[in-house]
Design goal:
Layout lengths: L1 E6 L16 E6 L8 H18 L29 E4 L4 E4 L2 E3 L3 H11 L6 E2 H9 L7 H13 L6 E4 L3 E4 L5 E4 L3
Parallel strand pairs: 3-9
Antiparallel strand pairs: 1-2, 3-4, 4-5, 6-8, 7-8
Helix pairs in contact: 2-3, 2-4
Length: 181
């Protein structure tokens, strides 16, 4: 059983009328053995992003009195290179070596899109259409997300800029996509 606790955030300059402890929202998810469904994986990802933004904490607690526990998730291979990036498509997780990389939905979709189409160059408009799902945005939006993705994957040359054209997955990119997880 997983429990997620998210204390509410105080707004600067606002004082509570009476002293009290921080309120806590607890979400309990009964998980079955096996991979997470895409909707549940998305919920967990959103809660992680909320916690990462500083608006709460994400904690997992195993309750000994609960029913059957979920099957343990396979960890990344200990022999994996520290800069090797693994995309676990089933659970929408990205691992670099043994650490989990927290990506936004767009960063994840962009990385997965490029990883599934190696050695192909995409213009900013093609990426906006394919990853974002629309073309009515400033093309430089793609640049911002690529820059953030590169910063989060520091140490791994994953995305290459093709000057005057767009972006592609680097030829030597240490990346793999696992659709079973």
């Amino acid at each position: 059983m997983s429990v997620v606790a998210i204390p509410t955030r105080r707004h600067p300059g606002v004082r509570p009328a009476r002293p009290r402890t921080s309120p806590t929202l607890t979400i309990t998810l009964d998980l079955v053995p096996g991979p997470l469904s895409p909707r549940l994986a998305r919920l967990v990802q959103l809660l992680g992003e909320l916690a990462e933004s500083g608006e709460g904490q994400l904690r997992t607690v195993q309750d000994a009195t609960s029913g059957p526990r979920p099957a343990p998730r396979p960890a990344a291979e200990p022999s994996a290179a520290p800069d090797h990036v693994r995309i676990l498509a089933g659970s929408r997780m990205v691992r670099q070596g043994n650490r989990v990389i927290a990506l936004t939905r767009i960063e994840y979709e962009l990385l997965l899109f490029l990883a599934e189409r190696p050695r192909r160059v995409f213009t900013r408009l093609q990426l906006l259409s394919s990853v974002w799902g629309y073309e009515h945005a400033v093309a430089r939006t793609v640049d911002v997300h690529v820059r953030r993705l590169r910063a989060k994957l520091a140490g791994s040359a994953v995305v290459t800029t093709v000057y005057g054209v767009g972006y592609r997955l680097a030829d030597e990119a240490p990346i793999s996509v696992d659709h079973s997880s």
